[in-house]
Design goal:
about 240 residues, alpha/beta, 7-stranded mixed beta sheet, 5-stranded mixed beta sheet, about 25% strand, binds zinc ion
Length: about 240
Amino acid sequence: MIACNCEVCTSTDKKDNRLRASILVQSSTTTIVVDTTPDFRYQMLREKVEKIDAVLFTHPHKDHIAGLDDIRAFNFFQQSSINIYANNLTQAALKREFSYVFAEKKYPGIPEIDIITINKDPFAIGDINIIPILVWHLHMPVLAFRFHDFTYVTDANKIEEEERKKITGSKIMVLNALRKKQHISHFSLTEAIEMVQQLKVPEAYFIHLSHQMGKHQDTEKTLPVGMHLAYDGLRLMC
Ligand SMILES: [Zn+2]
Ligand SMILES: [Zn+2]
């Protein structure tokens, strides 16, 4: 965290240095980014991503959309616009916050995107089948996504029974757990652990961690079998 001198923010363990929450989902032919954080540009540079087929958005909060402008580099090298999958709520925010991208007369070199509206219906991008799952971030609906046997749930503190059924059977899930103390719009660590246990997913990784979670190594040791804290650059095969 900016201007913080706590033991996590000053830690020399790389797993304690975290950028904002986002994932890259890849098959042999298709690459998808979920959310474009304020760190999107650096995340793409760090992982040497050379091509993306689509961006999926979970919700309109700034820490999940702010990096969209840097999609320009992919437009340039791929010589094409990029498909953006978002619900109506997120689309409204994109139009407000990136108004120049939607302008009638566009300045040359700005991002080129094609928006595809998603809701709760399953869809596919290339050879990747995707089931959206509606979760709640206090009062805001957020889309979680199941990609075959892998489920990604960021920013949420409530998942209704009907939507939980879509997660059941996943081999791996990623779930937000902000900190140990309860929070108004994110699962706490205890709540996240309980959710994974209820869903009976055998392998889980917690994300969207605040520095208030404490040091990675200390918390990791306390987690039940099959559960882990995620860290930047973590790769999972599924
Ligand atoms: Zn959020
Ligand atoms: Zn967030």
